């Protein structure tokens, strides 16, 4: 058995709904010197597991793959094309502008001029493209400072510091609206404000009347001047208001469903699952939308269908819609009245991430992310004018990968979609990718990745760091678990709150199928997930440790009886339920990984977290590591690894991203006994 660093037991007992709950490692919830020393000892132990010849042999490929170009969606304003681009040699993306879609970009802002850990995560140009507001954060904390840039002069002309968790802004002709929160290190992230900033003038509060669980977002119509405010809770519902003389006037409330408005050509389009579990699109005249008060006041312009509507984006005089069909992406183009014109002829098993359609009100050009299990994330450009059709698109930008690892060149991969039966007769789609020439004899190393929550769909995608594993004979499986939105709101609800264990059922059913179908064996199968996906992995670890040879559990939720007391946790009670509610306590207690550890052998497990995470507190991973190291009776290592200068994953410098990801894959190679060459 491994000799782990010593972790002192200092039990604290809580009584919840009549049950005594002992927490022997409550002290690891702190952020003091004692915890820092514990983390240092754990990191040193983990280094003995992962710092091996296998890691050294993987490093050159990871360096090549990490230092690649990355492209983000362009935004068109005033005839200019604004875009974040990360050059191959850069630590962070830069904000650029150009005058043509395929023109040479000019750098407006390089955040690493301040420090390599500073990142520019979002930007919003004004309507004529002369000014742009953007958000800067440091070390992945998602705590922002705002800057306003004069595009022609390349000078910062205004700034707002310390706005907390701010993820965007919306311009009118005098300034912009934005949301702000209190600081994470002061426990203020759930204290939210909607504010208006007038250039060279007043910065004023519009309203701070938001419940802790609910988040505001604002949108201004460039033609109408209408200001719409959406207030929503993650995993549950949204409400729509019109800002009228400084007051929020209810438009669509009490729907018990999510909604997303889009202002386009004097109309308000609303994408919602209210009365349509797979989504529909409604519309109303923008000038009179403040007079609306119920769904019947809106016209249905795109009715519900067998597809799941994921996103609507304005393009030219009409709209584009991202649909999910059998767990892959479809893009349809529509007239302003909702009439469908055609679908783009995308490749089989195409994937478009959330928010992957670009908005373009100025011209009939659509910009869109496109990815697949054998296709790196690219930007495509489609003409959507009157003479355009399904084939009128082309790849505009795509990263350059090493030829031997590029699935479009030297690495021949096979991709298939399987359907796996789970509990309650659910049919779960899972994508499987592997080298085309390997012999699937039931002993290939395999990684199963899952998430399953918050209506986030897992669609086909390629993380380039996965390619060495595929080159070396590995099998990668991407499971579309209940809790996501691959099949609409019902699919989400079947994996939320009292039905959350369906997510874990699906993950385990796919693991069993990979073995039964002859791809791998249990001792050569690794489960992998992060954040809510870390909860999925943690539940699989405590429910079915026999299914896996290794697990990678990143920035995870694991103590489901105290998750709501840390950072953003209270905002997730709509998805999971609150332990303070007796009924919810029962289902949370039944699966909470931290509370279901027993004396038994456990597979090799790596808990990975980061000091700057302002979403999921590192204490989840710390406490679970300590409890599992104490409980396991097996020989496989239980590891903890924490890094500085980054957070939940956003804004990580390239050099640190390479190191973090290499550590995780080195753990998989060691524990599954994978050789880093052309065989397994």
Low-pLDDT runs of 5+ residues are none
The strand count comes to 38
The coarse overall form would be globular
Distance linking N and C termini: 26 Å
Just give the CATH class of the domain at 12-64 and 404-672: Alpha Beta
CATH superfamily membership of the domain at 12-64 and 404-672, which one?
Alpha/Beta hydrolase fold, catalytic domain
In what order do the strands lie side by side in the largest sheet? 31-32-34-33-35-36-37-38
Please report which band the strand proportion falls in: under 5%, 5-15%, 15-25%, 25-35%, 35-45% or over 45%: 25-35%
Rounded average pLDDT: 96
SS-based structural class? alpha+beta
Helix content: 10-25%
| Largest beta-sheet details | 8 strands, mixed
CATH architecture verdict of the domain at 12-64 and 404-672? 3-Layer(aba) Sandwich
- The CATH topology of the domain at 12-64 and 404-672 is Rossmann fold
**Number of helical elements:** 10
* Rg over C-alpha atoms, rounded to the nearest angstrom: 25 Å
